[in-house]
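Re: Re: token formats

Sure, here are both.
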Amino acid sequence: MVLVAAWEALGGDPGLTSLVTGRGETGLDSRLAVGELALGAVGAQRLAAEELRKGANPRQPIIVDARHVGLAFRSERFCLLDGEPTGAGFAPLSRFVETADGWVRLHANYPHHERALHRALGPDPVAAAAERTGAEVEDAVVAAGGVAAAVRTEHEWAASDAGSAVRALPVLRLAQVGDGPTRVPRLDGLRVLDLTRVIAGPVGTRTLASYGADVLRLDSPHLPEDAATLLDTGPGKRHAQLDLASADGRERFEDLLDGADVLVQGYRPGALDRFGLSPAELAERRPGLVVVSLSAWGAAGPWAGRRGFDSIVQAATGIADATRADDGTPGVLPAQALDHAAGHLVAAAVMRAVTETGRAGGTWHADLSLAQLATWLLAAPRSADAGPPDAPDPAPYLVDLPSPSGTVTLVRPPGSPVWRHGPVPSGYDESAW
């Protein structure tokens, strides 16, 4: 069970996992154990929250509503602005395309990634891909600064250097990396610097915000986020823009770091090192800080520094092959399950680390990746049949929140309080506590 594996990796009392029970069905039907992954990840963060709020030995049973979890893992599909769909989803070129020897998954949701795709493959990437192997397309796009992955079987992925490196990692890691003062363990008012983008990291920090954390998301003014995505992942947070490459931005960031309890970052391993934000440097500069590092491919191996998203990880690791349709086209999971599961485990890691700092102090670092969760998912027992499509009624699980953009309808967080306010646009707030 992913709950047991994650809780063990987080250093929690293994006896507490028996408190968590799932009730009902997630509706995340797949040949792979997507429902178990979802319930386990949400169960871990619920357990971490109860441990932090009620002390070392919470004994109250934790019932996880599986239907609610299944809807939360597809939250972007149910997000409305003034009653209308927000339009979050995949760009036309973010899809599988055929190659000379199989398939490749492209990603073009962000303008800079679409430009890289055209630099690598020309004005018609689909036609160009058809004349090359999947590996050739992948290499060309990655070399151009874009994002793509050839569709591999799980055996091909496992035999690769990148796959071997990921397989050697646990589902996630949490470790004390330095000394630090003890603190009063709390969720309400916990100061969280959020340096994450897209889905996985923002789901983790929106979960912390639902528990009352003061989450301040920082984005570069040169790398805007998709507005529709922000509506879904931004409730409960404040949102500022800050240019770390500028002298003024660095100074303001240092002030924020001095007052922060937690830093969650979702950039590629090493991408922020030039700003002095490696876990080792942070442990030395800011004793007592909790740091969570989230990436696509993990901190080890030849792909550690490579860009990636949930859909790309599914293609590369063998998930797309394992879920192929009857006509042979690559398949997908019923949700961006790697992203959402990673988000709930980010929240669990933060809360477990805060609990530990309350007991004995210290500076703590957690790291996890989408590929590590893909490895767990592929190793879990499978179903012979994916089952019929699920068409859930989300109405009982929705909430309307006011925002500067209008009334935003969202899936309520599964098991934690509703956010105190709706999402705000990028740059809406000042970069200050």
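Second one below.
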Amino acid sequence: MTRSPLILAVETSSRVGSVALALGGEMLAESGFSAPLRHSAEIFPAIRDLLERFDREPSQIEHVYLSCGPGSFTGLRIAAAFAKTMHLANAARIVAVNTLDVIAANVVNLAGVAPGSASDHPLPAIDCKRLAAVLDAKRGQFFVAVYERTADGTWAKTCEDSLMSASQFLVRFARKEEPIRLLGDGLVYTRERFQAEGVGFLDQQTWSPRAHNVHRLGWQMALAGRFAEPLTLTPNYLRKPDVTMKSR
């Protein structure tokens, strides 16, 4: 890339939605929706307001980064449909960012961005070697990914996106000698299911995925040429949505 593209980052995978506008690696602004589960009602007004704030037009958006799941089926479809529309309208390039990575990036640097750079956001200090991002998958199950601090102080994803119950998670990951810390919107109404020795919870302010992390991770993917194929772009549902057949 010889110049900085105008980037729109979209986060609609969980309860709290947000969008962000950036110029290359430089974050310009982020706008959160007014209340949980307002994705379809507020995504377009929020984008319009961001563009007007910086005197930009929708036709100038060159990249769209979206949180691609796992997560809310409806929210993921909204983001994917928007990204495809921007590709058809503007030939915008698309980057699909893993939602659980977006959540983990609230507290650990998964983007490889040096502190103090344009894309950097202050991260809270956490005293642990393992953490798990958790989203509610309904039917008593959760989308989970686990990250561990490596010997050089960086973080690695050691358990890829998985679908499991709280009890299955505790059997696999609750260890008194090496505590694991949890974060994610999946804990909002189900935190008590994960209460166990060797399990702790990060501050609830770190639980929601945010558009600025979609940008932060997406920009590094774009620099590496990891763009999605627009025509075949499909969210990472990890599990097929429920389908109810109505009898006549």
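Confidence is low (pLDDT under 50) at residues 243-248. The chain has five helices and ten strands.
- S.
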